[in-house]
Automatic annotation (TrEMBL), chain A:
Residues 48-290 form the ABC transporter domain. InterPro entries: AAA+_ATPase, ABC_transporter-like_ATP-bd, ABC_transporter-like_CS, P-loop_NTPase, PstB-like. GO terms for cellular component: membrane. GO terms for molecular function: ATP binding; ATP hydrolysis activity; phosphate transmembrane transporter activity. This is Phosphate ABC transporter ATP-binding protein. PANTHER family: ABC TRANSPORTER I FAMILY MEMBER 17. It holds the Pfam family ABC_tran. Gene3D superfamilies: P-loop containing nucleotide triphosphate hydrolases.
């Protein structure tokens, strides 16, 4: 699906003769009139599909008619200024917004063809299939071992203790944490460094074999080295999982993702290949945001 | 230029981009003057003026180093994106083309010194005449290419690319004319070779001006048209 907005707002759409005048036009981000998402919202191999998604907090609408595919084995970054709705949209993807009483979601979000907002959908297995990692590392107040083992236990994914041991080890290895924690598995997860805690949380999410991992500002509390480790881990996980990440760091979006979606005032303004978004975005608002002209 | 350099939340970033852009525009004006002066020195047999052009080329070399420093600084400190990133990339390439234009102006100035600062008899004006004639066209190309970059005007940039095709044709005609002199009098071979090198310098300047134009189109439109023929460039611009 390709949708196009008015020519004045789309960079490079002007005929040659008018190029100078049109390029000089600017869009006021506060009063911009939305006329459709620029770019292809579909993915070649969609893992999740969202269509016509609206979200309200009470009377206030936070998301307007967003459509977007999350593709298989891709990292999709969602960027935009504070309050643009990117985290709200992310949280719709595993019904985390259900926990907010005044929040109402309409439209359609499907995981592998199944409507996740169908009233027969059980959110507990859904959240195992669509895991989440938050801004602040939040390991359970339990041992490192139990942080990983908790999910597989409650979802009945393992039978014996040795099976569980194997799963904990393989999960910690996938998260690149095994060598750092193998000798202190019984120590509390909260005793790890911030970066290690976040990787433990990612490990906890992948321990229940999710299809999709949602990450909401996963590195904002981490130092650059810990951030680099998490980004490296994301790249490795992409082989087996689908990842959607909300980030305030445009450099991070540019580094880790294959597709990028730009949100503004609750609308999905533009979506496209990350290479294109960061070198030649088509929408003026996207360009102004990623070049640091507002946000 | 307004949309490139205005509106960053960080104002010092605006200033840095604006300064970089202006430095390269100024360098473009300077190399244009160097070509004019070099060709005039040839017409006027003015050795002092030719020597000045040779010396001025060092200024452009030093501006190129300064621009490279600024580019490295901006990449390291600002991590430019989108149009800013294209600006940084394009500015570096444009500056490099301008520096080479300066080198070619110096070659023409050296031709003046070679012809008129030696005991050998200089060539007759008829033999030299193609250089000032074609230089008019080349100087216009450089001027328009720098204007196109200064104003981010892809239409004007395209005009420069078109002009370069015409220049190539004119060059072929001038070389054919030179060969007739050679056929008439084989003793003119030394002068014909020197003037051919002068024409070659102008042809290179035209080519660099066209590259400045092509980099400007990349900057404005995000399309890399370095190796496209003019018809394809036109189609790309209309997309």
């Amino acid at each position: 699906m390709n949708t196009t907005v008015d020519a004045a707002a789309v960079i490079g759409a002007a005929p040659v003769a008018e190029a100078r005048n049109e390029e000089a036009e600017t869009v006021n981000p506060a009063v911009y009139e939305f006329t459709g998402t620029v770019g292809d919202i579909t993915a070649a191999q969609p893992r999740m599909t969202a269509r016509n998604v609206d979200v309200w907090y009470g009377d206030k609408q936070a998301i307007f008619d967003v459509g977007l595919d999350i593709g298989q084995n891709e990292i999709i970054a969602m960027i935009g200024p504070s309050g643009c709705g990117k985290s709200t949209f992310l949280r719709c993807l595993n019904r985390m917004n259900d926990t907010i009483d005044i929040c109402r979601v309409s439209g359609e979000i499907r995981l592998g063809g199944e409507d996740i907002y169908d009233r027969r959908m059980d959110v507990v297995p859904l959240r195992a299939q669509v895991g989440m990692v938050f801004q602040k590392p939040n390991p359970f107040p339990k041992s490192i071992y139990d942080n990983i083992a908790y999910g597989p236990r409650i979802h009945g994914l393992v039978g014996s203790k040795s099976e569980l041991d194997d799963l904990v080890e393989s999960t910690l290895r996938k998260a690149g944490l095994w060598d750092e924690v193998k000798d202190r598995l019984e120590q509390p997860g909260t005793g790890l460094s911030g970066g290690q805690q976040q990787r433990l949380c990612i490990a906890r999410a992948i321990a229940v074999s999710p299809e999709v991992i949602l990450m909401d500002e996963p590195c904002s509390a981490l130092d650059p080295i810990a951030t680099a480790r998490v980004e490296e881990l994301m790249e490795e996980l992409r082989e087996n999982y689908t990842i959607a990440i909300v980030t305030h760091s445009m450099q991070q979006a540019a580094r880790v993702s294959q597709r990028t979606a730009y949100f503004h005032l609750g609308r999905l303004i533009e979506v496209g290949n990350t290479d294109d978004i960061f070198t030649q975005p088509r929408h003026r608002l996207t360009e102004d945001y990623i070049t640091g002209r507002f946000g | 230029m307004e949309e490139i350099t205005s509106g960053h939340t960080i104002k010092s970033y605006d200033r840095e981009l604006r300064m970089l852009h202006q430095t390269v525009v100024d360098a473009g004006r300077q190399v244009e003057m160097q070509i004019v002066q070099a060709v005039k020195s040839l017409e006027d047999e003015d050795l002092d003026s030719a020597n000045e052009v040779v010396l001025q080329d060092k200024d452009i070399d030093s501006i190129e180093l300064q621009v490279d420093d600024q580019i490295i600084h901006i990449i390291a400190r600002r991590q430019p994106m989108a149009k800013d990133l294209r600006e940084i990339i394009a500015v570096g390439k444009i500056m490099s083309d301008l520096e080479r234009i300066g080198d070619q102006a110096r070659r023409i100035a050296r031709l003046t010194l070679h012809f008129y600062d030696s005991d050998n008899s200089p060539p007759g004006y008829a033999l030299v005449a193609d250089i000032p004639r074609l230089a008019l066209q080349v100087v216009e190309m450089v001027h328009k290419a720098v204007d196109a970059f200064a104003d981010l005007d892809s239409r004007l940039a395209f005009e420069v690319i078109r002009m370069n095709s015409r220049l190539d044709e004119e060059m072929k005609a001038a070389l054919r004319r030179l060969s007739t002199y050679l056929m008439e009098d084989a003793r003119s071979v030394g002068h014909v070779v020197d003037i051919t090198l002068g024409l070659r310098a102008l042809e290179r300047i035209g080519s660099h001006a066209a590259y400045v134009a092509r980099h400007t189109i990349f900057l404005v439109k995000g399309k890399d048209v370095r190796h496209e023929d003019p018809e394809t460039v036109q189609r790309e611009l209309m997309d």
